[in-house]
């Protein structure tokens, strides 16, 4: 106290440095410490009158004697403390930081690693300073200068933030980052006495300060995919806004959440420490980052959060992530299909449930397709087989999230068979399955797959028997509604093909009720196709089976002949004719159980 009593150029001496003293109040005066070559204890002295009659400085000894004598002779006028000691300490070395970035709102716990932190007897502090270029609310008054004597001090408003540090050991300090008004690189400096923040001199190799990056609060919104197996390793992408893309690191954390309230569960109640462990992420850009899920013990819904320093985590606002048990695949049907693809394959199993992506996925070897139908009972799905460049076995797996595939079923790709001939090429429409016309189909590739072989006549399907790779047997079925062609005594009528409303393609039927080439009526030509797996039919478009109305034979003659045979018999129909409805040279006549080949004559 009593500093205001001395207004005539007071000075200070700290060690060997003599400088101007600034009287702040009756109880405070400001002095500047000097530079010393090594740690030591130095005397701090205050000189209320440091000039003699000539205006020159008195010697340090005289000043010291005068000051101390004044204090001792007149304690009511002199400061209560004029001769005190200050302890000099070596500059503390700051090597690196445990965390080099944090959000602008602060709250990041930082460990400062260095040396010599136990040397101070004061309360150490850490200063965070942004450059003016990084100030968020920068204006003309953000920086101003203070002149004191011949020294210029620059002060940054909204820039400097000072926090108290805790000395953990001689090599470690701990502090918490403050809220800042700038983003980007800031300098972090250390003051052992809470006043002198040490900067790294350019000519020195000592590190007295370190950079710290402040970034705006990110807003993560979505997760994709939204589910993955409990085995982990699912690559998820988190999207949002204001991601700190300049960061060299990113992290994800998964915390269990209630499926009813979606609130975060108390971590202390979790038996596994996997929930308190973060996983390394990869920054894609300022709106997206990716990471891989950890392995967990049981299926659970979790809240996903992201961090750019592995300490300050930010919750994904909208989506949750579900860990699930992989489904069990039992069988698929059919077990094979043509390599052109398009086979509707039903996969049976357990746990076939979609998670947040709509339809699920099937893989046939390296080809992936989406399911065409999802089962509400989670026991079956349907996929359309993709094209394969060659025939052979393909491994079939299923993914519930579009990424992680599981299961090992087998699908046999084969080349579609080729048809070359029918024998006979036609027959009458017969309702009785026991009396269906037996048809031999010639071609190739019939034995490339062993499944439920079928023949299709227009829209009507009938079982087939594969004799060998080039021969297949089947019976011409009743043509169903296609037989409407023969109504009204074979008179021309409006023909509506049931093919347009049934399982086969419109190309499966030739919409013909009149053979315009030979002017023949009462015939129906239907496309013949074969299937080796019961689903996919051959692509031949030229091989037809002709259904015809049997000719109405009204008389024949002669009505008898010698038992030695060779009698020429002539058969006659009514006016409608009919012998030319199928002219493939296979017209026969059954006489007493024996088949006789006939020839057609003119008329």
TrEMBL record:
GO MF annotations in UniProt: semaphorin receptor activity
Residue stretches making up the IPT/TIG domain: 91-211, 217-324, 326-414
SUPFAM superfamilies: E set domains
Cited Gene3D superfamilies: Immunoglobulins (2.60.40.10)
Pfam families noted in UniProt: TIG
Taxonomic superkingdom: Eukaryota
Protein's UniProt name: IPT/TIG domain-containing protein
């Amino acid at each position: 106290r009593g500093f205001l009593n001395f207004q005539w150029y007071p000075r200070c001496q700290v060690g060997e440095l003599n400088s101007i003293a600034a009287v702040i109040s009756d109880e405070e005066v400001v002095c500047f410490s000097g530079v010393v070559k090594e740690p030591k204890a130095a005397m701090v002295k205050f000189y209320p009158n440091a000039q003699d009659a000539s205006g020159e400085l008195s010697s340090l000894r005289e000043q010291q004697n005068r000051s101390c004598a004044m204090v001792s002779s007149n304690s009511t006028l002199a400061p209560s403390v004029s001769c005190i000691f200050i302890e000099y300490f070596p500059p503390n070395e700051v090597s690196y930081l445990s965390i080099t970035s944090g959000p602008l709102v602060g709250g990041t716990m930082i460990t400062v690693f260095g040396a010599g932190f136990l040397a101070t007897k004061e309360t150490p502090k850490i200063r965070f300073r942004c450059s003016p270029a990084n100030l968020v609310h920068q204006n003309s008054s953000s920086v101003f200068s203070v002149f004191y004597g011949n020294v210029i001090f620059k002060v940054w408003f909204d820039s400097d933030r000072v926090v108290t540090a805790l000395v953990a050991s001689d090599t470690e300090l701990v502090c918490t980052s403050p809220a800042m008004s700038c983003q980007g690189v800031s300098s972090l400096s250390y003051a052992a006495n809470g006043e002198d923040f040490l900067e790294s001199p350019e000519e020195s190799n000592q590190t007295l300060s370190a950079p710290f990056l402040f970034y705006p609060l990110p807003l993560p919104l979505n997760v994709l995919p939204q589910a993955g197996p409990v085995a982990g390793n699912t690559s998820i992408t988190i999207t949002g806004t204001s991601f700190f893309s300049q960061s060299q690191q990113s992290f994800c954390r998964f915390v269990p959440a209630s499926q009813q309230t979606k609130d975060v569960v108390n971590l202390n109640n979790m038996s596994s420490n996997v929930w308190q462990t973060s996983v390394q992420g990869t920054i894609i850009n300022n709106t997206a980052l990716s990471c891989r899920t950890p392995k967990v013990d049981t299926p659970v819904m979790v809240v996903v959060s992201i961090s750019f320093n592995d300490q300050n985590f930010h919750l994904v606002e909208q989506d949750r992530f579900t860990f699930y048990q992989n489904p069990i695949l039992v069988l698929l049907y059919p077990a094979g299909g043509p390599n052109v693809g398009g086979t509707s394959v039903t996969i049976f199993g357990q746990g076939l449930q979609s998670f947040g992506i709509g339809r699920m996925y099937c893989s046939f070897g390296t080809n992936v397709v989406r399911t065409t139908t999802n089962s509400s009972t989670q026991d079956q799905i349907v996929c359309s087989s993709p094209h394969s460049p060659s025939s052979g076995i393909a491994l079939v797996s299923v993914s519930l999230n579009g990424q992680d595939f599981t299961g090992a079923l087998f699908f046999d790709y084969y080349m579609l068979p080729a048809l070359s001939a029918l024998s006979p090429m036609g027959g009458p429409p017969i309702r009785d399955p026991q009396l269906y016309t037996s048809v031999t189909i010639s071609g190739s590739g019939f034995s490339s797959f062993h499944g439920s072989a079928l023949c299709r006549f227009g829209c009507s399907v009938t079982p087939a028997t594969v004799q060998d790779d080039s021969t297949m047997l089947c019976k011409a079925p009743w043509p169903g509604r296609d037989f409407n062609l023969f109504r009204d005594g074979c008179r021309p009528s409006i023909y509506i093909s049931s093919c347009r409303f049934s399982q086969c393609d419109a190309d499966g039927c030739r919409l013909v009720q009149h053979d315009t080439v030979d002017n023949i009526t009462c015939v129906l030509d239907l496309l013949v196709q074969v299937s080796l797996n019961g689903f996919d039919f051959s692509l031949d478009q030229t091989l037809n089976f002709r259904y015809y109305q049997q000719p109405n034979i009204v008389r024949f003659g002669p009505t008898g002949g010698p038992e030695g045979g060779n009698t020429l018999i002539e058969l006659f129909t009514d006016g409608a004719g009919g012998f030319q409805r199928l002219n493939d040279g296979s017209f026969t006549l059954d006489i007493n159980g024996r088949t006789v080949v006939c020839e057609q004559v003119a008329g």
